[in-house]
Amino acid sequence: MECADGVRIHGLWWREPEGAPVILFLHGNAQEVYSWSLVRRELEPLGCRMLLIDYHGYGKSEGEPHEEGLYLDGEAALAWLKEKGVEEEETIIFGKSLGGAVACEIARDRRLKALILESTFTSLASAARRLFPFLPRGVPLGETYDSLKKIVRARCPVLVIHGDRDELIPVEEGLELYRAAPDPKELYLVPGAGHNDVSLVAGEEYPRRIASFLSAHAGL
Prior knowledge:
The protein is an alpha/beta fold. It has one domain (about 10-215): Alpha/Beta hydrolase fold, catalytic domain (Rossmann fold). The protein is about 35% helix and about 15% strand. It has helices at about 35, 40-45, 65-85, 100-105, 125-130, 145-150, 170-180, 200, 205-215; strands at about 10-15, 20-25, 50-55, 90-95, 115-120, 160-165, 185-190. Strands 1-3-2-4-5-6-7 form a 7-stranded mixed beta sheet, sandwiched between helices. Helix 3 (about 65-85) crosses helix 4 (about 100-105). The protein is globular, with a radius of gyration of 16 Å. The chain starts with 10 loop residues before the first strand and ends with a helix.
C-alpha cells in the first residue's frame, strides 16, 4: 500500500470468507503485524475478512512514525480495500489503544459498517495527565491524537471496549469516549482486565459480545 506522502506500508490480508465484511485492524504502539496476527484467531468467530497494517516506521513499512503519518496509513488502507472492491459500508474499523486514535481520525464523516475502539485514550494530553499527574497543564506534547473531538463525527455504530483495571489507559478514558460517541453505541467493560489482556480475560465472551453488537447495529 502506498500512502499519500509516497511511503509504502506493509500489511497482512485475510481474504476469506469471500464476500464477507472486512475488519481493518489498527494495532497499538508496540510490535508489528506478525506479532499482532493472533488477533485474527480471536476475531475469526465474527466471520469477517481482515486487513492488519503496520504504520509508518513499524515492521516492514517505510518511513518514520508520526501522527499525520499514522493517519495517512489508515487512509491508504481504506483506499487499498476499495481497490479490492470493498466499500466503506462493508468495513469495520477496529482500533486498539493507539490504533483507536487512528480509527477515530479516519472514521470521521464516513458511513462505515462500524467503529470499534478498545483500550483507547481520549487524547494524548489527557492520557499524559492521568499517567503523569505532576505534569503542568499547557506543557506542549507535540502530537495530540484528539479522539474525543473526533468521535462526535462518527457516522456509524460505535462499540467501546475497555478493561476496568487498565493500568496504562484508565477506564475513565474509555467512558469519556463512549459518552461522546453518537448513537447507536454500546459499552463493553471487561471486569478484571488490564490494558493488554482484555480478550484473554474476557475469553469466549469477547467475540460473542462483539458479534452481538454487530448483529444488533451493523447487520452482520
